[in-house]
Write a structure and sequence with these properties.
Radius of gyration: 14 Å
Organism: Pedobacter yulinensis
Mean pLDDT: 93
CATH class: Alpha Beta
Distance between the termini: 46 Å
Protein name: SnoaL-like domain-containing protein
Domain SnoaL-like: 13-110
InterPro entries: NTF2-like_dom_sf, SnoaL-like
Strand content: over 45%
Low-confidence stretches: none
Helix content: 10-25%
Largest sheet: 6 strands, mixed
Pfam family, one: SnoaL_2
Number of strands: 6
Shape: globular
Number of domains: 1
């Protein structure tokens, strides 16, 4: 089992878009719920495929993630914060988010619940 600090670090990395850094911390049967977009991914390959698309987007823009705080219990971590995405000095999107992670007995992420409200700007 991993420590509470390791669970917090894993959650922080995932929430800030460093998916590849924590791919080995995903359970094989992980579920990822993204409520704003009505998306639900099941299984490590499906979650990783979706996250690789997000990583590609993050690489194409300037990102600024600010964690406002976190909450923890034995097998859950919630990270809440704010992110902006810009290109050529123009704001593309600003997002308030809260990601809730549930860990299994081996310390792997078994469920992710993502709540976001974005203010998307014109994409130019």
């Amino acid at each position: 089992m991993i420590s509470a600090a390791d669970k917090l670090n894993t959650a922080r990395l995932f929430s800030s878009g460093h998916f590849a850094d924590v791919a080995d911390r995903l359970a094989d049967d992980v579920e990822f719920h993204i409520f704003e977009d009505g998306k639900h991914f099941v299984g490590k390959p499906e979650v990783q495929e979706f996250c690789s698309g997000i990583e590609a987007y993050f690489a194409s823009v300037e990102t600024n993630f600010r964690e406002h705080g976190h909450l923890m219990s034995e097998n859950r971590v919630a990270i809440y914060g704010y992110a902006t995405f810009s290109r050529d000095g123009k704001l593309l999107n600003a997002v308030n988010s809260c990601d809730v992670y549930e860990f299994d007995d081996q310390g792997l992420i078994k469920t992710i619940y993502s709540y976001c409200n974005g203010q998307q700007q014109a994409m130019k």
